Amino acid sequence: MKKIIWGFFCAFCLVLTSLTPVHAQEDWEVLPEGVDLSLYATAAVLMDADSGRVLYGKNADAVMAMASTTKIMTCILVLENTSLDEMVTVSSYATSMPKVKLYIQKGEQYTVGDLLHSLMLESHNDTAVALAEHVGKQYLSQELAQKDTAEYTVEESKQAMAAFVALMNKKAAQLGCGSTWFITPNGLDATETIVGADGSTLQKEHCTTAAELARIMAYCVKESPCREAFLEITRADASSFYANGRSFSCVNHNAFLSMMEGALSGKTGFTNKAGYCYVGALERDGRTFVVALLACGWPNNKSYKWSDTRKLMQYGVDHYFYRSFLQEGVAFDAGSLPSLPVQGGQTDALGETAFVGLRIEGRDSGPEGLLLREDEEIQVEYTVSEALTAPVEEGMQVGAVEYRVGDVVYRRESIVTQEAVAEIDLEWCLRRILEKYFSIFGPAASKA
């Protein structure tokens, strides 16, 4: 009995420890004096959505389950591959999804727009699969693409869903999210076995990291061609629609939208494995912040995610401000660039050394600035060749200017030649020799 009591006591202590806010210990992270970011979340990130820079991270690259925050990727890909007024036909497989669900029925039809509100406001799992099948079926064989989705077998529905999930993983890879792997469009915990060409197997789980989840949200609210539609849907307080003889009402469960001025978007999530998760965005004074939280408590700790989100967002608003790389006192002065000697280059006279001027190229490309904390500095460094060998073309890159914050380069500009310098050849030598001859003997010969 003593052992049983002691076991329960140890388990209770472990639970208490997991629910206590833990301060992030990142090697690169030094907080300003007086700032305490003790968080409940196991993994958390505060990101500058414009640059993708992680402003604060706690276990930012830990691979974890993300539950229904998955649906931000589902939503943006549906928007990018369909129109809101397209009709979605429901399969029997979609209706079989577990709660939370809209309770759509086989053969019913709904508009993409209505189902997207169901997806993002109420986080319905059956809606996610119906939308995924609708988009994914176009990547199947012609026969299946033209087949009525209501007549799909379970296997055919899974093929259509898998085609959509492939789009999700392709987009994640394009965004540089190498640790993210999608298996479902609704975020339900899942594991799959991938068989390689050589017969080897790899077990993969539905997962992401806090940093990569934030990166996906940054894409949704800043970069996607469908960002306005995404924001309109995810910011809606509620949505009501009538279809198939039934009335539906969806209410937005993203409490953060009313918590802080400038709240843009967000998505909650929960599974027994993932715990409470959240990803949200805020825009204030031209700055856009994204917060991603993974494993932010378990029942009954629903409010932890709101506490952590507010704390991280406020930290960003209070301490990070935009600074331009091109402002006076920071931008690299092109006038300080030396002219480079060109070995074997043509000049106006024998015995002279050829030189070529330099200029900066690319001032109009790359990020023009960054959100920086008060104590952070922009370091500007340049490298350039010591000498060149003819022939030299105009616009040839001979160096680079780098703008750094800490050890990370955020902007790079090219140093290029202003003009071309031809190589010394026989014709040039003869011309210079004749010029030299006539400069010496010309007057005497004319007088004779």
Topology:
Layout: H1 2-19, E1 22-23, E2 38-39, E3 43-48, E4 54-58, H2 71-81, E5 87-89, H3 92-95, E6 109-111, H4 112-122, H5 125-136, H6 142-146, H7 154-174, E7 191-195, E8 201-205, H8 210-223, H9 227-235, E9 238-243, E10 246-251, E11 263-271, E12 275-284, E13 287-294, H10 304-319, E14 320-324, E15 340-343, E16 354-356, E17 358-361, E18 369-373, E19 379-384, E20 388-389, E21 397-405, E22 408-417, H11 426-447
Parallel strand pairs: 15-20
Antiparallel strand pairs: 1-2, 3-4, 3-13, 5-6, 7-8, 9-10, 11-12, 12-13, 14-18, 15-16, 17-22, 19-21, 21-22
Describe the structure.
With 448 residues, this protein is an alpha+beta fold. It is built from 11 helices and 22 strands. The strands form 8 sheets. The chain has a 5-stranded antiparallel beta sheet, with helices on both faces. A 4-stranded antiparallel beta sheet has the order 17-22-21-19, with no helix packed on it. A 3-stranded mixed beta sheet has the order 16-15-20, with no helix packed on it. It is elongated, with a radius of gyration of 31 Å. The termini are far apart. Residues 1-28 have low confidence and may be disordered.
